[in-house]
Each structure stands twice: as structure tokens, then as C-alpha cells.
Amino acid sequence: MKKLLLFTVLTAAVLVMGSCGSTKNVPYFKNIDSISLADSRGLFDARIMPKDELIITVITTDPEASKPFNLTVSRSLGSGGSLSTGGGSLQAYLVDNDGFINFPILGKLHVQGLTKRECEDLIKSKIQPYLARSENPVVTVRMSSYRVTVIGEVASPKVIPVSTEKMSIIEALAQAGDLTIYGRRENIILIREDATGEKHHVRLNLNDANIINSPYYYLQQNDVVYVEPNKVKAKNSGIGSSTTIWFSFIGIATSIASLLVSILKN
Question: What predicted TM-score, i.e. pTM, was given to this entire model?
């Protein structure tokens, strides 16, 4: 009987221990005190890609001079069903598959691969001949469709809009509630699409502080970050639903064995 009870206790202990993973890969940036982060120097600028949506505003001292260069909806449907006129709101320019936008007055402009600043300078140089010499136009460009996706073993998988047009992989994971204890920190998968539509992936290690020096540290628009489950989670997915059944079986077996022992003794 004692051997049977010992076997039961050991079995339960193995099941419990099986659900506890190693903590050696839990900390981030484990070697940060021994590496140089000099390669991470420099400010990140997102570059315009096909299918990006751009909000472009042109401002001059004379509002009438800049009006033709601002894409707005000037007419709306009134309460009586008739069209009414008004200032309207700025509309987004969709970058086509060839990297062009169709800009008022100027026609098609190739903006793919440009930073926001480079796009602003391009448009400013193109519209300057249409304005009086005294006019010094201010052009602002904003990427309204910048977003990244985080899925897998995180607390809150989601699509994250990026209003600042700059987000690191650490910020994205933080927005998603950070990795769960079951997430593989040493094997984060980043899926990225280039300007031709081709997809590729890289594997990133959050345990290694060199990730800060990586060209993939800052995410591009439409990046997908996938956190794989570790072996413990994979095993639990198979035995988690049956753990209760196993404990019930062990309990029943123990009771039957105790009953048999009592009968045999008598």
C-alpha cells in the first residue's frame, strides 16, 4: 500500500513539474552589459510603400493659393437630399502598386521609397512654380495607414496603429501586453513584405541585447510579429485537457487498490 501511495505522489509530482518551464530564457537582453549598442545610433525614418495611405496638407499665407493642392471633399449630401458645398475634410492618397500618387494639378508623383521629409520636399518643389514668389508653402505628409500586427503567445494579440510612424519590436510587444510565460523569447518570428510584394521572415532573439542593433529592431508598416509557444505550452495543449481525467483515474485506482488490500487481509 505504501508503494502504491508513493507511486501516486510521484506521478502527481511529475505532472506538476512538467507544467513548470525553465526560467533561463525568460529575461530580456541578458548580455546587455557586455555588448556595444553603437550600431543602433541614428534616427529611424519610415519609407513610403505601395498601398500606404498618405494625408498631405499644403498651407500658404493665402488660403486660396493652396486650395487647389489640397484634396478635399467639398460637397456632401444635405438633410433634404441635395448636395451642399463646404470646406470638407482632407482625403487620403493611396499609393498604387507602382509607387505613384495622383496629386492635384501636378498629376502622378512617384513617392515609393521616400521618407516623409523627402516626400514633403518633392511636393514643395513641384508646386512652387504655381505660386507667387512671396509664397513659401508648408507641406506636411502623414502616413495614416501605418500599423503592425502582433499574434501568438502574448497577453493581448492585436493590430496596432502607429501614429508616430516609428515603433520598435519591444514597443509592439508591450502594446500587446508582453509575452506570456509560455512565449519563446529566443525565437520571435518577424514577417515582412517588401515594395514588390515579396514576403520574407527573420527570427529574433529577445534574450540577446544585440537585437537593439538589428535592422529589424524598428518595425515597418504591415509587419507581422509572431511569438511561438515553448515546449511546455505545446505539451500542456495536449495533456492540459486530460490532466483532470488522469488525477481522477489515479484516485479511483488508489481507492480500488485500498479496497482490494482490505478484502485480501480479511
Answer: 0.73
Per residue in 36-64, pLDDT (tens digit) is 998 888 889 999 999 999 999 999 999 99
- For residues 169 and 88, which has the higher predicted lDDT (pLDDT)? 169
In this prediction, residue 241 carries a pLDDT of 47
pLDDT tier for residue 137 given thresholds of 50, 70 and 90? very high
| pLDDT confidence band for 248 (50 / 70 / 90) | low
Residue 173: how many CB atoms within 10 A of its CB?
A: 22
Quote the cell numbers at residue 241.
485537457
SS3 letters for the chain? CHHHHHHHHHHHHHHHHHCCCCCCCCCCCCCHHHCCCHHHCCCCCCECCCCCEEEEEEECCCHHHHHHHCCECCEEECCCCCEEECCCCECCEECCCCCEEEECCCEEEECCCCEHHHHHHHHHHHHHHHCCCCCCCEEEEEECCCEEEEEECECCCEEEECCCCCCEHHHHHHHCCCECCCEEEEEEEEEEECCCCCEEEEEECCCCHHHHHCCCCECCCCCEEEEEECHHHHHHHHHHHHHHHHHHHHHHHHHHHHHHHHHHHC
